[in-house]
Design a protein that fits this description.
With 264 residues, this protein is α/β, with parallel strands linked by helices. It has helices at 49-53, 56-63, 86-101, 119-130, 155-161, 174-182, 202-213, 234-251, 255-260, and strands at 2-10, 15-23, 35-40, 65-70, 112-117, 137-141, 190-196, 223-227.
C-alpha cells in the first residue's frame, strides 16, 4: 500500500489544502481502476485522523480500496452560509481533480463510496445525496442530520454554517435531500449507516434511520448497523468500516439492478 500527500488547489475555495491518498497494490485494481473510499474526518479533525486513529489502511489493502482523505477545517462539510463552499469541494471538485491527477482511480459509480465519521458522516450523506452520479455508496458512521440538532444555545454557529430558518426544509437536511432525490430519475446510492450502541447522539442517528426506512421498497437499499458496546468513538468506526467493506463485497455484484431501480 502506497501513502502520499497531495497539496491540492481548489478553485471553488481559492485555497490549497492537503489530501492524503493511499493506493493498494496494482493487482487489486478493477479493470476500470481502483475502487475508492472518500473518507471525511470528524468535527475538529483533519485528513490524518483516519490513519492515526484506525487500522483502515490495512483493511483497505485487504479489500483492495484506494483511500482519499481530505481536510475541510471547521466547515461541517457544507457550503457554509458565512464561509466557503466546502460541500462542493469535497463532494464534486475533489474527485474530479484527483481523477485527473490519478487516472488509476475508477470513475464508475459502483466503485466509489463516500464515507465519514460524526460531522464527516453527515457530510458523506450530503455528498452522496447531492452528487449521486459520482457515488454509488454512502457509508455514514455516527451520522445524524444537522436539521435535528439543538442550536438554541448556539445560534451564531447555526447562522455561520446553515443560515436562518427551519433546516428540515433546506439542502442542509439529509431528509430533505433524500426525499427530493427519490422523486427524480437520477440514480440512488446505497446507504450503509452505523453507530454505537451507547452513542450520546444515538437518537439523531435513529431519526436518519427512520427516514430512510420510511420509503416504500427501500429504494436506497438502506442497511443499519448498531455496534454493540461502543460510544461515539474511532474504535466503533474501525468495526463499522470493516463491516461496510464486507457488505460491499457481498452486494457489489448486484449493484446496477438494486441501486438505479426505484420502487413505485
Amino acid at each position: 500500500m502506497n501513502l502520499f500527500q497531495i497539496q491540492l488547489y481548489s478553485e471553488c475555495l481559492n485555497l490549497e489544502l492537503p489530501v492524503w491518498v493511499t493506493l493498494p497494490e496494482r493487482e487489486k485494481a478493477e479493470k476500470e481502476g481502483f475502487k475508492t473510499l472518500w473518507l471525511y474526518h470528524g468535527g475538529g479533525g483533519c485528513h490524518t485522523d483516519w490513519l492515526t486513529s484506525t487500522h483502515v489502511q490495512a483493511l483497505a489493502e485487504e479489500h483492495g480500496w484506494a483511500l482519499v482523505m481530505p481536510t475541510t477545517m471547521d466547515s461541517c462539510f457544507v457550503d457554509m452560509n458565512q464561509g466557503e463552499a466546502f460541500g462542493l469541494f469535497v463532494g464534486k471538485e475533489l474527485p474530479e481533480r484527483l481523477r485527473e491527477l490519478l487516472p488509476c482511480l475508477s470513475r464508475e459509480r459502483r466503485h466509489n463510496a463516500v464515507s465519514g465519521f460524526s460531522n464527516g458522516g453527515y457530510g458523506a450523506l450530503l455528498a452522496g445525496l447531492r452528487f449521486p452520479e459520482m457515488y454509488g455508496w454512502i457509508a455514514a458512521f455516527a451520522a445524524g442530520d444537522k436539521a435535528d440538532a439543538d442550536f438554541s444555545y448556539r445560534p451564531l454557529e447555526k447562522l455561520r454554517f446553515f443560515g436562518e430558518g427551519d433546516l428540515h426544509k433546506s439542502p442542509y437536511s439529509t431528509k430533505c435531500l433524500a426525499a427530493e432525490l427519490v422523486k427524480t430519475k437520477r440514480p440512488l446510492p446505497k446507504v450503509f449507516h452505523a453507530y454505537g450502541e451507547f452513542d450520546a447522539w444515538r437518537e439523531m442517528n435513529e431519526k436518519v434511520r427512520d427516514d430512510f426506512c420510511s420509503y416504500e421498497g427501500n429504494p436506497y437499499a438502506y442497511c443499519n448497523l448498531v455496534v454493540e458496546g461502543k460510544v461515539h468513538e474511532w474504535s466503533m468506526c474501525e468495526i463499522a468500516i470493516q463491516k461496510f467493506m464486507e457488505y460491499y463485497d457481498r452486494e457489489s455484484q448486484s449493484f446496477c439492478e438494486k441501486c438505479t431501480e426505484k420502487s413505485g
